[in-house]
Amino acid sequence: MSVTITVSEVRAALYRAAGAASDCGDGAPSTAVLGQWFHEGLGLLVGDDSSTSPLAALAEVEADLEVWKQTLVERMYSQFVGPKLTRQQAALHDVAPQVLAFWQAMQAACHWLAELSWSMPPTRASHRAARTAPWQTLAEWFTTEEPLTCELREPNWSDSVRLVGVADAVVRLAHTGAWCAIEFKLGQTSPAVDLGQACLYHLMLSSAAATREPNSARGQDASSTGALALISFRPERHERLFAATELAGARMRLIDVIGKLAGVDAALATPPLGRTGPTNMPPPPASLKPNVLDAIRPTEEHLKLGRDLVKTLAEYGVHVSLDEPPLVGPTFLRFPITLGRGTKVSAVESRAAELQVRLSLKAEPFINREDGRLVIDVQRPDRQTVMFEQVRGQLIAGDSVLGGSRVPVGVDLDGKLYCADFSRTEHAHLLVAGTTGSGKSEWLRLAVAGLLLTNTPQTLRLLIIDPKRNAFHALRDSPYLWRPIVFPDEQSASDMLRALGDEMDRRYQQLDGADSHAELVARSQSPLPRIVCVCDEYFDLINRNRVERKLVEEQVCRLGAKARAAGIHLILATQQPSRETIKGALDSNIPARIGLRMQKALESKMLLSEGGAEKLLGNGDLLFKDIGSPQRLQAPLLTADERDAIFGKR
């Protein structure tokens, strides 16, 4: 069985190798949400839908390059950028310079595509029919978010490596048959890494073009397979075109990186953590405590479940294959599948109910796309519990003055603890939803425990609103409390939220030109505690009476829009993610979402903008969404004894 690695993993290894260079950046945008928007905007520009593409407007204006540039910019703003900024105004309140850079980069992209359109001779004809050519031709040339896969094998490797990824755009030049891949970046990059990444995509595209000659990746003749362009917007446009002969020299070094990363190179001293596939390395010493998932390998029962999955789909005329063993998580098995000839993704998705019945599953399989391939998550028949003590060591200690801003969310398939970070715009506040038994209250306690372990009372204070009166009883005498625990039956939650808003206003006066809480603390070198408001049941707050609802929503709106820069954050949970609860103040001001198991697909769509949470398995099985597709994680279980010990710490 081949070992699968992703382009993202190879890219990260390239950046680590170049980390000491003074000119090295990671290519990342200033905020993840702006990077996502940039890619979505480019997809709209070169999409194949004539009814929505801004390029179609070029057929209605004067045949002049400057007019075309201005037309694309205006259409891009009215159709895409303007509505995005309006909806997310609160979340982007304190990153205005980054938003400006994003818009400048978007304008540069519009100018670039206008120039490409102008370079096509038919587009300059005077009659209207010919003037539709720019949109038509670019739509044929460009493929955005292009899934790429290639199989690599070397003589000194113990196994083959399957490399999967998604290219930002692939351009096929119709008049020559040549191609180039385009990787869009919004941040500073490293020239050395640019070459490595260009070689990476060139390797995948040339391998795809030469599938009838499955030779060693080193031995392929790259000179005949085209060039590759890397384009960055910082925010002005920077281009570098790599010729095939230039890329060939970097190929051998890239193959070495891939072999070591996948753990198939004989020179690798220790196997990579969390990977499947054969290795001949000795096990680690017993004294070294492994990550929670390091020892998990597919059993015969797991493999049989995969065979039954393929057989069941075949009975309905849906032909797929399993090219590698499943990835084994504590809660579910992830089967990466390859579609048979003529088989559509929708055909697999439509058979989820049949798979549940035929395989005797408690919930429908979760069918999703990841890194350009289709995966099916099936409940693990021997589900394991992830204990908090097993991943506690992965928490990053907070700074002695600033404290820690990370909130533990859950464990991924590699046994790594994923954390939301309050310092990031898209994680400024968290909204949690799940039905009874999904693990909502347990997750809130996990989040609080993670914050307490990485902070002191000088760097963190909590405002707890507990309508159920029993979720945070162990914190009642904690020195971390900003105010005593609020029980809405005894004290108005809106009054306490108003007090928190007043504190936010006082802190804004203290900022005195600083852009954020972190900058203020760094400048003064004295702690200003981060304040985190945790509410276990938001629906209860707004369902008491109309006056109280209005007051609560007003304060949530104020805090959601402005509080991050003042070091104030919200973690709100609800058992009922209905339109009445989610839409409005929460939907526009709280970007990061944790979806535990829900009753209906409609509830999942309310929270995550897509279904899926209704198929979760409960007890901490969750979907985390900030931008892009939700990520499936398993929340660790915090035992009562450990919770009391952490909550009672001084």
Largest sheet descriptor: 7 strands, mixed
Terminal CA distance: 52 Å
How many β-strands, per DSSP? 20
Structural class label = alpha/beta
Features:
20 helices, 37% helix, alpha/beta, 650 residues, seven-stranded mixed beta sheet, 18% strand, six-stranded mixed beta sheet
Kindly describe this structure:
This protein has 650 residues and is of the alpha/beta class. Helices cover 37% and strands 18% of the residues. The chain has helices spanning 7-17, 32-45, 65-87, 96-118, 133-141, 191-209, 244-262, 300-315, 345-349, 352-358, 388-391, 440-453, 493-511, 517-524, 538-542, 546-562, 579-582, 585-589, 601-608, 640-647; strands at 3-6, 142-152, 161-172, 179-185, 228-233, 237-242, 320-322, 327-328, 332-339, 366-370, 373-379, 406-411, 417-421, 430-433, 460-465, 530-535, 568-574, 592-595, 621-625, 631-634. The strands form 4 sheets. It has a 7-stranded mixed beta sheet, sandwiched between helices. Strands 1, 2, 3, 4, 5 and 6 form a 6-stranded mixed beta sheet that branches. It is globular. The two termini are 52 Å apart. The model is unreliable at 20-30, 123-132, 210-225 and 268-295 (pLDDT under 50).
